[in-house]
Amino acid sequence: MKLTIYSKTDCPYCTKIKQVAEYLVNEKQYSVVNYELNTDFTREQFYKEFGQGSTFPQVILDDKHLGGCTDAVRYLQENKLL
């Protein structure tokens, strides 16, 4: 399974989901791609992809958009993926 994270620096929720992702890589053999704001994409591209006012991070599992950190962790727990 592939987890894609759109994040930014100095974001505690981004740090948390990256810790979850590290666990998934080490324990469940997930692949993880992390994109950083102002390095890999602009804020304009981010809003175009996820909608105006979207918050960081945004998490995608394979092709399913999970949302932010809290929603992503909830989805992973409810589906016994975490």
**Nearest-angstrom radius of gyration?**
12 Å
CATH architecture: 3-Layer(aba) Sandwich
Mean pLDDT: 97
C-alpha termini separation: 12 Å
Sequence of strands across the biggest β-sheet: 2-1-3-4
The total strand number stands at: 4
Can you write the helix and strand succession as a string? EHEHEEH
Tell me the number of structural domains. Answer: 1
Proportion of helical residues: 40-55%
For the sheet with most strands, the description reads:
4 strands, mixed
Beta strand %:
15-25%
User: What is the fold named in CATH at topology level?
Assistant: Glutaredoxin
Quick one: overall form? globular
Q: Name the quaternary structure.
A: single chain
Folded structure, characterized:
The protein is an alpha+beta fold and 82 residues long. It has a single domain, classed as Glutaredoxin, CATH 3.40.30. The chain has 3 helices and 4 strands, in the order E-H-E-H-E-E-H. It has a 4-stranded mixed β-sheet with strand order 2-1-3-4, with helices on one face. Helix 1 links the parallel strand 1 and strand 2. Helix 1 packs parallel to helix 3. It starts with a strand and ends with a helix. The mean pLDDT is 97.
